[in-house]
Amino acid sequence: MHQLPIWRPDVTVAAVVPRHNRLLFVAERVRGTLVLNQPAGHLEHNETLLDAVVRETLEETRWKVQPAHLLGVYQWQSPVDGIGFLRFAFVAEALADHPERALDDGIEQVLWLNRAELLDCGIPLRSPLVLACVDDFLAGRQHAADLCRWVGTP
Fold first, then answer.
1. Would residue 1 count as lying in a domain?
2. What does pTM read for this prediction?
């Protein structure tokens, strides 16, 4: 009997952070190409989803945020390498900028853009997840952040 390989998507978090009618983005270098993304990254061992989105946003943008709502859960598989992603996107409030902090490796710029600026800036989106999150935010989608619960002791 032929056994199929085990497929497991990467679990990631992303922050949609509104401020002054714009959203927070990062220009990051991925495999040599500059792309735009929300502050986002992988869930780490023994980390809650809410803690992960706060950590990733601070590391990538220097902004301390407070998650307010779960925007949605998004599944996508890259047609380039077949890697699958399960993204938990949160709407978060911008609390404070920490300009003294260094940005994560690969992050070249922190940008505040509206939807039109995002599409017109000439930098490609890292994945279709970026625009899906923007459009869901602009459509007013939101769910209680406590839908994402840690069960047990972190």
1. no
2. 0.93
Residues 6+ apart with CB under 8 A from 94: 17, 18, 19, 24, 63, 64, 65
- Determine contact, residues 90/13, Cβ cutoff 8 Å: yes
Q: What does residue 33 show for φ and ψ, rounded to 5 degrees?
A: -110, 135
- Residue 63 has which token pair? 């902004």
The boundaries of the domain holding residue 112 are 10-147
Name the DSSP class of 145: G
What pairs with residue 14 in β-bridges? 40, 89
**CATH number of the domain to which 17 belongs:** 3.90.79.10
CA-CA-CA-CA torsion sign (103, 105, 111, 112): negative
Dihedral of the CA atoms 100, 15, 110, 101 (nearest 10)? 10
* Degrees to nearest 5, angle at CA 68 with 123 and 127: 25
- How many structural domains is the chain composed of? 1
Q: Is residue 50 part of a domain?
A: yes
Q: Which helix (H) or strand (E) holds 30?
A: strand 22-30
Residue 153 forms part of a structural domain: no
pLDDT tens, 69-102? 999 999 999 998 889 999 999 999 999 999 999 9
Query: Is residue 120 domain-resident?
Result: yes
